[in-house]
Amino acid sequence: MASSRILVIGGTGRLGRHLVTASLDAGHPTAVLVRRPATAGARADSPVKAKLIEELCDNGARLVYGDVNDHDILVAAIKNADVVICAVGHTTPHKLVENQIKIMEAIRDAGNVKLAEQMLEPARSILGAKLRVREALRASGIPHTIVCGYLVHGFLLPKAGNPEADGPPVTTATISGDGKQKAMFVDEKDMSAVTIKAEEDPRTVDKILYVQPPANLCSLNQLVSVLEKKIGRDLEKCYVPEEELAIKIEAASPFPLNFQLAIVHSALLPGVASCGQTAVRVEATELYPDMEYVTVEEYIDGLI
Ligand SMILES: NC(=O)c1ccc[n+]([C@@H]2O[C@H](COP(=O)([O-])OP(=O)(O)OC[C@H]3O[C@@H](n4cnc5c(N)ncnc54)[C@H](OP(=O)(O)O)[C@@H]3O)[C@@H](O)[C@H]2O)c1
Question: Measured between alpha carbons, how far is 5 from 3 in angstroms, rounded to an integer?
């Protein structure tokens, strides 16, 4: 059977770049839709982004310039794909829904492909928007898989769970809540590898595919102690109570800091997380039992 052709939208993003690599590694003809630097809202044409695009192309990805807002370009790109993987970022819940609906409309106009929506949980307002997108996706009849991890490694681990930090703590670790609540941390590469496996796996069609390796459950206290072990000394701990964190989120500068703090609030404080789902769920660790996942400790090992 010929390998399915994959189009990744959002391929220069934190998750998207790993999806492109995982798709190429699995031998799929892979295209990546990239916004031109001059496009409104696009990341500046930093040397980092230019280098990333060059690397993806050197590894065999086919570059398509376009924007989710360019319906004709989107349709043309989708016509050349069997599977569309969406890893598009968002600034507001409204934008999130709008982008995804545009992709669905283009898929419908292009023909019949499967959509893998590469979105993880949470932040309450964004979650509400994601649930609306999922309803629309189900109603559209487009065969799809929604891939859900939770927190990807690169988002919080390099800052020891504190979105306001510039990097790992040197003397004091700021810990939201009491630091005991565990959340699921999944490596971007593993999320991407699972997504690419799922795209040709009939067991995942029209389902939510969770990626929840039990060994990757980790609390902020555990995360800080992994760091302490790595740097060989104890850190002071500054605990931020829930009420203080909530006030901080209210007062935080606009997106993305308020969103990142809200994710910490929903994922790492007890009793706040919510991710009501009605769709049929399957679990990657059961579907692909031989797959190994990068643990929090391994990630920190490679970081410092
Ligand atoms: N990172 C996390 O920890 C995390 C956790 C949970 C869920 N997620 C979900 O994963 C998805 C991707 O997140 P991310 O962190 O990888 O995002 P990201 O790093 O902000 O990347 C966003 C990507 O989307 C592209 N993009 C944005 N608007 C576009 C448009 N109008 N047309 C075409 N491309 C557009 C960006 O292109 P430019 O380079 O041109 O800007 C970039 O490639 C989101 O749904 C997010 O909610 C992420």
Answer: 6
